[in-house]
Amino acid sequence: MTEYAPGSPESSREDWPSDEVARLLARVTRPGRYTGGEFNVRVKPGASPRIVLSYPDAYEIGISNPALQILYTYLNDATPAAAERAYCPWPDMAVLMRAGGVPLWTLETMAPVAGCDLWGFTLPHELTYTNVLEMLDLAGVPLHAEDRGEGDPILLGGGPAVTNPWPLAPYFDAFFMGEVEHRLDAIVDALEAPTRARRVTALAAVPGVWLPGVSCAPAVRQVFMGFSSTPPVLRPVVPVMEAVHDRVVVEVMRGCTAGCRFCQAGMWYRPVRERPVDLVVEAADRLLTETGCDEVSLISLSSCDYSGIEEALVQVRALRPGLRVSLPSLRIDSAADNLARFAAGQHGSITLAPEAGTQRLRDTINKGIDEAQFEEAVRATFEGGFTGLKLYYMIGLPGETDEDVAGIARMAGTAARLAKQIGRGRARLSVSVSSYVPKPHTAFQLEPFAGGETLSRRQRLLREAMPRNVRVSFHDVAASMVEATLAHGGPGSDVLVEEAWRRGARFDGWSEHFAFAAWQTAADVSGMVLGESQLGGGGEAPWQVAVDSGIDRTFLDGELLKARCGALTEDCREGVCAACGVCGYGVEMEVLG
Amino acid sequence: MTWWLLRFSRSGSARYLSHLDTARALQRTFARAGVPIALSQGMRPKPRISLPLPLPVGAAGYGELAVVEVPDETPGRSAALRALHAAAPPGLVPDTIVVAGERRPRPQPCEAEYICSLDGDAGALTAAVERYAKEEHTIYERVSPKGSRTLDLKDYVVPTAIEAVAGEAKIRFTIHYREDGAARPQEFVDLIARWAGVEPAMRGLERLRIAWKGLPSGLDPGAGRSESQ
Question: Which site among A26, A236, A248, A336 is 20 to 30 Å from A563 CA-CA?
């Protein structure tokens, strides 16, 4: 492997990029999105197989995705493959690429994506689906898998959105379900087969792979049981242009067993696996050197639940004077006890997620925090030094009433009062409210979406009830309707995605680009109603034929019943197994002793 | 504390960085190289590094200057330069370090020499450059969110050569920096492109050389390169 040696001719090639690409770069916003050249970028000329990794969003979003960094590092450093990257071109670039007939290229070699052996997509959520089609079209790769031939890449989809692969099924040759780290060698080996058809067949034999229209059994979600014993990525690609996250990332724990009934990640990434503190601290030290960053983020689905959090915080903070350490995804119940300590010496803002406005609804979603814990957490936030607090809520949860929505405003009022008392005028408070979309493999997976009308009415209700000194923001209801439709989409829902893309839908997660009219027309054409579930009767979910998440259906049904009567389920880390079905056959919880 | 003048070049993929991103990439390079940058005082200390003459997005530059304050215990220039060289991202190449002493140097650009490539009819582009040379005044209105300003490009920009071949032209020009500021390369190119009837999108812009004033005597870190190499 050759890296761009600093100062070498490759690092400052004056014929770079080609005239053809340079003409495009001169006409677009933020051309640095398309040129690579980051710290720690890898280039392996002549290596085989050639794999392109993509995140179907803008560069500055995709470069911050930890999953892609894991794949990129492992494939380049531990296998014979060359892994390159491509992100979704912004609309101004897409127009020029089409006009100039310039196909999508990779950041590492500027070579056309279409010439690779395998094109892997990390699919984060439903609102990126049209970007996948946009990238295929810009690359000159046939949209439908059935139209691809010997010279075309094999498309492999992975990531959280493959929990229901149907809306993208015809566009991918294969999907990988779950965590892929320990299957990468097998995937690379499968690409050695002499023909495309045999490569796809070999890929189908890799555990966790599901081939739309071919596999006759659901793929079993893969769990990486080497997580605790292996270090995180130590030489990540570090962007040279501004990205959404600009910090060292150390994944301290994977999985969460808090059991929030709405949370797909909490189910999909079970069981909990923790990295030893010394591995975390060593990684943070090395990463600070490799990246030149001045902030470390200890990430997981709930970092306050990481058993070694206090020790890790102390030791990581001691690595460099003045080092900032951030903990995203704090659950209030676990954070309340520790926030004062975590916040010491920190500044900036923090997000806490009560999720729902009343005790009844919080019990329904198994978020058993009470008002006293909430007040304690808010108090600890401002006393600890944070000057900004964002509260995150959802509306449209199953069983929600107007009274629950009014409860959000009441809690915000309490927080505003505490901010004024403790924050001495410097404290800022904001509330972010998203619309709940029932997701596969959760207790609420078959529950109906609240609907656009209900959500809009509740947004109005909440806006009117919210204290004047609290800033509140809402997610776009129309976008949630699209997301809900796709989350429950069955076979045939791909037509909706393609029709919307053909009508100009792109970057649907970006409010300035979201084109509801395109989706509305696409829904009419494809015979679907936005916001309405495609699920038939009988309690069967379409994704069950594609993916076996390992979560016992009886457990999910039981959780739904408990939700309806407001009963809580204890976190299995605290002793009582909830019989979710994940553990067994070599898969088990790994927490620090 | 000691002030350093770092001369570096920015080309290849790095030429598409913005001014702020270039400063950030240099700061990262110092951190990766283990060469500390002094921090400013106050609640939110910031690294003391500045680039006195921003380079436009998309432009390569071969005599760029960064002014950096480093703690006294920082390793010597040669060791630091080697470490910076090894730690830099592709296209960003540290070239020379000059120690400027304890007082912050405030280099001011006098003039900078550019070369740009424009697509279009070579004859029309040549005629446009010749017309520019003959005009007594060329008024350009600079519009920005802060308002508009009228400037005479002839006060600032002197084209020095044009090399026209089929379908394109390479125009070499010098921008002079005065008390009241300077014209921007794109403004001159816009004008030439308008007169030639071609699109003003530069396929390539290179800043070949910068002449500085305000540097302590004998501390000129180098003037870039005078010829396209």
Answer: A336
Residue with the two structure tokens 């792109």: A506
Interface check for B40 against chain A (CB to CB < 8 A): the answer is no
Interface test with B, best of A3, A8, A12, A90 (most B CBs within 10 A): A12
Whole-number Å distance between alpha carbons of A178 and A227: 13
Q: Which residues of B157-189 are buried (b: 16+ CB within 10 A; e: fewer)?
A: bbbeebebeeebbbbbbbbebeeeebbbbbbbb
pLDDT range class, residue A337, cuts 50, 70, 90: low
- Which of B11, B25, B34 is nearest residue A12 as measured by Cβ atoms? B11
Written as one letter, the residue type at A399 is G
Q: Token pair for residue B118?
A: 């424009």
- For B81-106, the pLDDT digits (tens) are 999 999 999 999 999 999 988 889 99
ipTM of predicted complex: 0.88
Model confidence, pTM:
0.93
> Mind listing the pLDDT tens digit for each residue in A3-48?
444 434 344 444 556 778 888 998 999 999 999 999 999 999 999 9
- The span from the CA of B159 to the CA of B167, in Å, is 20
Residue A585: which region, alpha, beta or left (left: phi > 0; alpha: psi -120 to 50)?
left
Most confidently modeled range among A12-26, A61-75, B131-145? A61-75
Interface test with A, best of B15, B16, B22 (most A CBs within 10 A): B16
As beta bridge partners, residue A351 has A390
CB within 8 Å: B12 and A12: yes
Nearest to B13 among A27, A37, A347 (CB): A37
How confident is the model at residue A23, as a pLDDT? 86
A39 in contact with B, Cβ within 8 Å: yes
Compute the distance between CA of residue B186 and CA of residue B151 in angstroms, rounded to an integer. Answer: 14
CA distance linking residue B74 with residue B85, whole number of Å: 16
Q: Across the interface, do A32 and B17 touch by the CB < 8 Å criterion? A: yes
Tell me the average pLDDT of chain B: 89
Tell me the CB-side half-sphere exposure of residue A170, using CA atoms within 13 A: 15
Query: Looking up tokens 């069981």, which residue turns up?
Result: A271
Q: Which residue has the tokens 């919880």?
A: A589
- What value does the mean pLDDT of chain A take? 92
Cα distance between residue B229 and residue B212, in whole Å: 21
Cα of B196 to nearest chain A Cα, Å: 18
Contact B31 A13 (CB under 8 A): no
* pLDDT tier at A343, thresholds 50, 70, 90: low
- The predicted-structure confidence for A496-550, as pLDDT tens digits, reads as follows 999 999 999 999 999 999 999 999 999 999 999 999 877 766 678 999 999 999 9
Radius of gyration of chain B (CA): 19
Q: How far is A278 from chain B (nearest CA, A)?
A: 22
Residues 234-293 of A with CB under 8 A from B: 238, 240-242, 288-293
